[in-house]
Write a structure and sequence with these properties.
six-stranded parallel sheet; FAD; alpha/beta; 3 domains; [methionine synthase] reductase (NADPH) activity; amino-acid biosynthesis; 18% strand
């Protein structure tokens, strides 16, 4: 292979938060060691590649965002290939392999990749390698790593067949019928020179195919049997294993401190999604009692003087900063406490080996270090394995270095999942756990992702409250644990709670002489419209709403809107409305007791509530969860969905509620239709397909 010229393939990625791009870059880095040259581009850069004329194999890495949508960077591409005027053989010349990224916590798992894959097939393109679907819920690497391993043999065979076709003037069979062995090669391949196989000194096996790296000073004595693994400590077999660790990502960023003064950029410049609006918070209400397990807040924003528009059911995003104490702590650990207010310039490192290196778009051309750590970088992000691999090189203690190697290795995959991923460990936690690790600022800018704006469901109607926008959220709490010694609040919910504390607990000193609050704060927001989670266009159609906890939020907007429509259009026919709500305790976290008002004025036809933690003295225990009440109302639910072609809305927690509600609906349909579960599942799938079963859920 070394004597041959490197063989080209086209590598496209479509990313929302950077994961697909990082995986594509890993493929690009490994390609050279296998004798390939990857021509890598973002799928949005359609001026730099042309699938209509592409002769070489194409590899696509694509993520999924929202409720199963392709990432923003793929929207133009998807729109282009979905043109119904394209003939069924439009891509008959194309051979490709696709790796989709998703999260099975959400209904439309990997739908971004599935959408592109399905459409390419419809247009005649052929797989040279089986499609991979990686699940972020359990760890992308469980699919990504073996998929990349198998890619090289599949590419080799595809290019070989392509060459044979050219040499023999299409005398051989099409590529698609000759590649059945490629997918099976995934488990047979060994990692080659692009991956460093670290082996501790061992008197035993010597494998000439493994690169041995001697790590002096590491004690190989087996730990006591009762010792348990942790973030900083491993046990056999991991502690005594030869490690396969990723290739070291090439450095590509340089940071220069400047003496100049000036102003930081406006927050609106950090957002590429569209227009941002800086709006005042005019009201804050705590909806839960002090002794409730969770604290739920309702905030009201004044949008009267803006062009911000929304419908009930829409969402919007809040631009939020990192916790200032955590930023200060990070500056201290980096030894940069005195330079926080210094302006810095970020540029590409000369001579970098990174393909197509460019400065991250979320880093301003000119701003202070503290601004970047506060508003631009997600310092709470769970470190990827590539980041851990880079941190190895910044760690001086050999024991700490070994443990970081284990955590980013294949052998330490379960430790990574348990002690980093599932424990929500962030960079600060790692720096405390591994004190000899001293990363550079440039490394952080290379590996920390963009600080994402946080999305919230609208909980109001512009008809009911003109010029106002309300939303409801729980203040997220992360308890301390073995991998994280301190408790933390959610990045955005913790910031919002602190921001509105004066509104929640006003004091005499917080009022100016006119009696107006001088503590009104402003936040920056931008719209994120929902294309489907809206009231039925026909008001006579009945609908069911299921929203326990803060999942009730959009339904308050629905009911407010419906009430105003009823007042304005007395001659309209309105369908019945059902609301199923649940919480832990009736007296502690029943968020909207004014639901009774909607019931009394006829806006809400049926209100069903349950309280999961309240004790009962009744002979028959009341239902605890919303799915239990749904089953008690089985005949009515089936009637609304089947006979009256109504709508069914679910909002709230995906993992602990939405799936159970879906199962309950299947049971109800099966029972009322007198059909088996498979038939009921098909009906539910039809309801989803026709946008009559709609979800707004989070994990």
């Amino acid at each position: 292979m070394c004597c041959e010229s490197k063989r080209r393939f086209l590598l496209l990625y479509a990313t929302q938060k950077g994961q697909a791009k990082a995986i594509a870059e890993e493929i690009w880095q490994q390609a050279g060691a296998h004798g390939f040259e990857a021509d890598m581009h973002c799928i949005s850069e359609m001026d730099k590649y042309n699938l209509e004329t592409e002769k070489d194999p194409v590899v696509i890495v694509i993520s999924t965002t929202g409720t199963g949508d392709p990432p923003d960077t793929a929207r133009k591409f998807v729109k282009k290939i979905q043109d119904k005027a394209l003939p069924p053989d439009h891509f008959a010349h194309l051979q490709y392999g696709l790796l989709g990224l998703g999260d099975s916590e959400y209904m439309f798992f990997c739908n971004g990749g599935r959408t592109v894959d399905r459409r390419l097939q419809e247009l005649g393109a052929q797989h040279f390698y089986d499609t991979g679907l990686a699940d972020d819920c359990v760890g992308l690497e469980l699919v990504v790593d073996p998929w990349i391993d198998g890619l090289w043999l599949a590419l080799k065979e595809a290019l070989q067949l392509q060459k044979e076709k050219e040499d023999m003037n299409n005398a051989v069979n099409p590529v698609s019928s000759s590649l059945s062995t490629a997918p099976h090669a995934v488990h047979e391949l060994k990692l080659s020179s692009e991956v460093q196989n670290l082996k501790l000194e061992d008197e035993g096996a010597r494998d000439s195919d493994i690169l041995s790296q001697k790590l002096d000073g590491i004690n190989l004595v087996a730990p006591p049997r009762d010792t348990k693994p942790s973030l900083v400590h491993s046990v056999p077999p991991v502690s005594q294993s030869t490690l396969n660790i990723p290739a070291l990502p090439p450095e590509y960023i340089e940071v220069e401190f400047q003496d100049s003064q000036g102003e930081n950029p406006h927050l609106s410049s950090l957002i590429s999604e569209g227009t941002t609006f800086e709006v005042p918070v005019t009201k804050a209400v705590q909806l839960t009692r002090e002794d409730a397990i969770k604290t739920a807040l309702l905030l009201e924003l004044d949008i009267a003087d803006t062009a911000f528009e929304y419908q009930p059911g829409d969402a919007f995003c809040v631009i939020c900063p990192n916790n200032i104490s955590e930023v200060e702590e990070l500056l201290h650990l980096l030894g940069l406490s005195e330079k926080g207010n210094d302006f810095i310039c970020v540029k590409i490192k000369q001579g970098t080996k990174k393909k197509g290196a460019s400065c991250p778009q979320h880093i301003p051309e000119r701003s202070t270090l503290k601004f970047i750590l506060t508003w631009c970088l997600e310092i709470r992000a769970i470190p990827k394995k590539a980041f851990l691999r880079a941190l190895v090189e910044c760690t001086s203690d050999v024991g700490e270095k070994r443990r970081l190697q284990e955590l980013c290795s294949r052998q330490g995959a379960s430790d990574y999942t348990r002690f980093i991923r599932d424990s929500n460990v962030c960079l600060l936690d790692l720096l405390h756990a591994f004190p000899s690790c001293k990363p550079s600022l440039s490394l952080l800018i290379e590996h920390l992702p963009k600080l994402q704006a946080r999305s919230y469901s609208v909980s109001s109607s512009n008809l009911y409250q003109p010029g106002r926008l309300c939303f409801v959220f729980n203040v997220v709490e992360f308890a301390a644990g073995p991998s994280r010694p301190v408790s933390r609040r959610g990045v955005c919910t913790g910031w919002l709670a602190e921001l509105v504390a004066p509104l929640l607990h006003p004091s005499k000193n917080s009022l100016d002489t006119k009696g107006e609050s001088s503590l009104i704060e402003k936040i920056s927001i931008f719209p994120r419209p929902n294309n489907t989670f809206h009231l039925p266009a026909d008001p006579s159609v009945p609908f069911i709403m299921v929203g326990p906890g803060t999942g009730i939020s959009p339904f308050i907007g629905f009911l407010q809107h419906r009430q105003k429509l009823r007042e304005k259009h007395t001659d309209w026919e309105f369908g019945e409305t059902w609301l199923f709500f649940g919480c832990r305790h009736q007296d502690r976290d029943y968020l909207f007791k004014q639901l009774q008002c909607f019931l009394e004025n006829g806006t809400l036809t049926h209100l069903k509530v349950c309280f999961s933690r309240d004790s009962s003295t009744t002979e028959v225990a009341p239902p605890k969860y919303v799915q239990d009440i749904l089953r008690l109302c089985a005949k009515e639910v089936a009637r609304v969905l089947l006979k009256e072609r109504g709508y069914f809305y679910v909002c709230g927690d995906k993992k602990h509620m939405a799936d159970d509600v879906s199962d309950a609906v299947v049971d109800i349909l099966s029972m009322e239709m007198e059909a088996d579960k498979l038939e009921a599942m098909k009906v539910l799938a039809m309801l989803r397909e026709t946008k009559r079963y709609l979800q707004d859920v989070w994990s």
